[in-house]
Each structure stands twice: as C-alpha cells, then as structure tokens.
Design brief:
102 residues, mainly alpha, 2 domains, 5 helices
C-alpha cells in the first residue's frame, strides 16, 4: 500500500498560507488589469482615413471660414452625409477650434 499524505496532499501542506494568499491576490489584480484594458476606455484610432478626413475638413474650413453656404455642392453633400445632417455645426466647430471662423 502507498503511504498517504505524500502522494496527494503532501505538496500543498508544504506551501505556506501567505504565499497562497499572495498568489491569489496577484491573480485577481492581473484579471482586473486585463479587464480594464479590454473593457475600459479605448484610445481614438488614428489611421489613414481619419487623417484624410481631418485634412479635408481643414481644407473646407479654411475656404469657407466656417460658413456652410460658401461650400461647393459636392463638399456640402459629403459633409452632410458624414455628419448625418449636422454639417453646419460640425464645420463651425472645426473652424472655431482651428481659428478659421470669420
């Protein structure tokens, strides 16, 4: 017959309780940190599309001075479609932010 204690539970009895508690605390802290990184606030993605959009908005804000009535029809249609009908507010806000508002 095998000797009890050494085969199954002998190893656990050698680890001190503070080490087990510290390991559990580290595991909980790691899980919390990963949860925050995954589900927390995300940085704004900067890619070629957003850079091109900002350059286009910069161009039309300079040309119009923040006045939507001075835009070309193509630019007006594109602005209205991208802002879901709030192009006047978006253009004024962009022009004001960058100092183009006349």
């Amino acid at each position: 017959m095998a000797v009890k204690g050494e085969a199954n539970g002998g190893m656990l009895s050698r680890i001190p309780m503070p080490v087990i508690i510290a390991g559990i605390i580290v595991l909980i802290a790691f899980a919390g940190w990963m949860g925050y990184r995954t589900l927390g606030p995300q940085p704004d993605p900067v890619n070629e599309l957003t850079i091109a959009q900002d350059q286009w908005m910069d161009k039309i804000a300079k040309e119009s001075g923040g006045d939507i009535s001075k835009l070309a029809p193509e630019d007006l249609n594109k602005l209205q479609s991208q802002t879901r009908g709030h192009g006047d507010l978006a253009l004024k806000a962009f022009a004001k932010k960058h100092g183009y508002l006349k």
